[in-house]
């Protein structure tokens, strides 16, 4: 799994042309478990599985770890059959209980593909796996503060409450004041939204400040390698820029269809 910085998250980009979003309809949930909802941190956890082992010793986690071990002893086909009975939201919540269970669940990509189909959602957009897409669709919390039931940003594919939109989405003028000395070229490689505070399309491009921060460090890192005369550094930098430009383009292309699908999705859930 390839990892990029900031909110652009993980996974190999999908072909945008595969994202045919129009006309999807949700089924009614199988049964409600809405009182147990995942937080944004949990959403990230599903999106970005850690390679590290969970530190042992906390008594309260023993039962959960035992559950992951128990599941690990079951034949994969049986685990799949059992987990298929869980609604998508419950599966996301289960993945957030501990790292062992999360690793186990993320090791069954077909499970997440089926859950995505259960939601009648289209193929995941660029940078999203099926697991992350299901998590995104069922976890409607503000990306930064965690407040519930906020509207998604169709361009950045994140949820932001009104307060956090105002605090963390910045235009190019604000970028200059917050990140003095940062090359204007950098903005070409950062996904942006054109939704305003009223969730309407706007000509002004807004960047998530954390994305700018992450890109700044990455950018400087490449420049330092080039200045130090590291072999192949310029080629690596050019390749990075090309990849990021494609990502920004894909995110923009997908926003229109994402808009239509997510509006319909949110009206039904
Ligand atoms: Zn917020």
UniProtKB/TrEMBL annotation:
Q: Where is the F-box domain?
A: 68-115
Question: What organism is recorded for this protein?
Answer: Ephemerocybe angulata
Q: What is this protein's name? A: F-box domain-containing protein
| Region of interest (Disordered), ranges | 32-66
């Amino acid at each position: 799994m390839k990892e990029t910085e900031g909110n652009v998250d993980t996974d190999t980009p999908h072909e945008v042309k595969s994202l045919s979003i129009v006309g999807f309809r949700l089924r009614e949930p199988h049964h409600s478990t809405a009182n147990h909802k995942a937080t944004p941190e949990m959403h990230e956890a599903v999106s970005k599985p850690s390679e590290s082992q969970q530190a042992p010793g906390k008594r309260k986690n023993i039962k959960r770890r035992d559950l992951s071990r128990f599941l690990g002893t079951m034949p994969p086909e049986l685990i799949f059959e059992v987990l298929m009975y869980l609604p998508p939201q419950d599966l996301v919540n289960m993945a957030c209980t501990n790292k062992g269970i999360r690793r186990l669940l993320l090791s069954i990509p077909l499970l997440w593909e089926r859950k995505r189909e259960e939601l009648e959602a289209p193929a995941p957009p660029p940078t999203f796996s099926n697991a992350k897409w299901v998590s995104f669709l069922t976890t409607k919390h503000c990306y930064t503060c965690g407040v519930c039931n906020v509207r998604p940003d169709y361009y950045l594919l994140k949820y932001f409450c009104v307060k956090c939109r105002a605090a963390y989405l910045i235009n190019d003028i604000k970028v200059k004041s917050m990140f003095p000395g940062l090359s204007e070229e950098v903005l070409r490689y950062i996904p942006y939204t054109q939704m305003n505070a009223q969730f309407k399309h706007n000509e002004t491009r807004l960047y998530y400040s954390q994305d700018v921060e992450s890109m700044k460090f990455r950018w400087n890192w490449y420049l330092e390698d080039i200045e130090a005369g590291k072999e192949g550094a310029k080629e690596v930098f050019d390749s990075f820029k090309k990849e990021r430009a494609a990502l920004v383009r894909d995110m923009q292309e997908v926003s229109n269809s994402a808009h239509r699908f997510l509006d319909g999705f949110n009206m039904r859930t």
